[in-house]
User: What shape does this take?
Amino acid sequence: MTTTNPQPKSAIRDPMLICCDERNKVIYVTPDGDLLAEEAESMHRQVQEYARHDVEALVLDLARVRTIDPFGLHTILLLYNQLCRNRGELVIENASRELKKLFQLMRIEGRLTISRTGWPS
Assistant: This one.
């Protein structure tokens, strides 16, 4: 399992932890706060680096996320669509009640797996 939290180019600390389980072909992503435009762009860029490998699932742990802006939602949908094209799966874990309602209102709940568990132990 490979874990990375690369040093950002600016003084802003990296807003997430990414872990790639190459054996099981799964990428685990945990944002360290709200998923706003800058953080979503960073997440998308970093996941794309790992997605070059044969990835079957992306697990997005939202335990520390309270708010997702429109760009963050767009990024989640882009990742989902990319995974679907490659017959992969996007799993949303530990989403707050409010975020689950947001996914329901967008009518994408059925397009995503939403669970209550977190990182593998």
Notes: The two ends are 12 Å apart (CA to CA). Residues 5-12 have pLDDT under 50 and may be disordered.
